[in-house]
Automatic annotation (TrEMBL):
Pathway: Carbohydrate metabolism; pentose and glucuronate interconversion. Its EC number is 5.3.1.12. Keywords: Isomerase. NCBIfam families: PRK02925.1. The lineage of its organism: Bacteria, Pseudomonadati, Pseudomonadota, Alphaproteobacteria, Rhodobacterales. The keyword Transmembrane helix does not apply. GO terms for biological process: D-galacturonate catabolic process; D-glucuronate catabolic process. This is Uronate isomerase. Gene3D superfamilies: Metal-dependent hydrolases (3.20.20.140), uronate isomerase, domain 2, chain A (1.10.2020.10). One of its GO terms (molecular function) is glucuronate isomerase activity. Belongs to the metallo-dependent hydrolases superfamily. Uronate isomerase family. It comes from Paracoccus siganidrum. It catalyses: D-glucuronate = D-fructuronate. InterPro entries: Metal_Hydrolase, Uronate_isomerase.
Amino acid sequence: MMLHPDRLFPADPATREIARQLFAAVGDLPITSPHGHTDPRWWGENPAFANPAELLVIPDHYVVRMLISQGVPFEALGIGEGAETDPRAIWRCFAAHYHLFQGTPSRLWLDHALAHVFGLDTRLAPENADAAYDRIADCLARPEFRPRALYDRFGIETIATTDGALDDLRWHRMVRDSDWTGQVLPTYRPDGVVDPDTPGFAGALDRLGEITGCDTGTWQGYLDAHRQRRAFFREMGATATDHGHPTPRTADLPWPEAGALFDRIRTGRAGPQDAKLFRAQMLTEMARMSVDDGLVMQLHPGSFRNHSAAVLSRYGRDRGFDIPQPVSFTAALKPLLDAVGMDPRLRLILFTLDETTYSRELAPLAGAWPSLRLGPPWWFHDSFEGIRRFRRQVTETAGFFNTVGFNDDTRALCSIPARHDLSRRADCTFLAELVVTHRLDETEAHALARLLARDLAREGYRLDG
């Protein structure tokens, strides 16, 4: 049996029974996915997926990084110049190394997808690799395995993509113009026109000006261009922005100083610290804009992107070499919070890859500032143990209602139901432990299980208006 019905539930019989009952009530609730990275073209064009390797192996950085760490070359996974082009050979390589995922959340997600989506009844291994490949390939050729059909089959009610500030949102428009009823929302990700360290930054600002008709050579015109793009994203259904900064540092410079900083950035005269200060200032500017337009603001700091320069140069971005690093929020967020943190119109959702901040900083901050909410465990920590560590460290100080439930943060479509299944089981286990230790009664636990599975995400991201 690849997937035991009691997986992740407590070993203690009494606690396990309560967890079962809680999960039975929420396990099949519709999925709200308010932050993710699925390809919007999938939803617009609704194409067939090419083959099992293209769907489940090559784009999954969790899969790629594990195999690379064990000496499998990128080329064997279909990545890079001179790479393997036979998808069956790539799949065989994946199957030969499937044992490497034992004990990881990736194994749970992959097993779930292989069993529930494609009907496999034995775990992937070298001896059944070809049979599994043929089964999945046969499925992918059928219309019921195209993206929109999978959306409906998975019980997704809302999914958000992450889109650059310069994106024309053509695929979102295609969804809106179709007769399909799925709700696919864009998310405003302005990093490429906010971070001066981004390659091609000056050209991106030129393009931002062309799109908006604003003078992005001036500080006022640059901010107006952001406001215009945000308004366009809102018209297309967006309820949130997302900011993937290296740190959560914010600043609130007087207007003349901010304008002078922008001038240095725009004209190529920036000093070594100006890029950091500009990113910090722009987080506060984005928060002010969120006060005005109601877009929920998400901050995802703490990733050392593309840690291997050689991998970045040879194989490109998003190849599994983004590594967590320490961050601190308390002093970093103070300028932004002093500016707008008490305004009830601001909703700022904080994420971290630094778990040491959970009880020391994030829970106390969210437990005081009305504008703050805590996002779920992110990236390396959206696992069973990661979710449990998060709940144990933040709940006593921030409670449940200063969190926003779960979002799957994935580009791997077939893992979405698996990730929500894991999260719901983890939360039901945590709630069951509170019941048996008489910190909650069962009625409260059932209400909270629903909130954590669905309702907090919808409220936190303002999805219901």
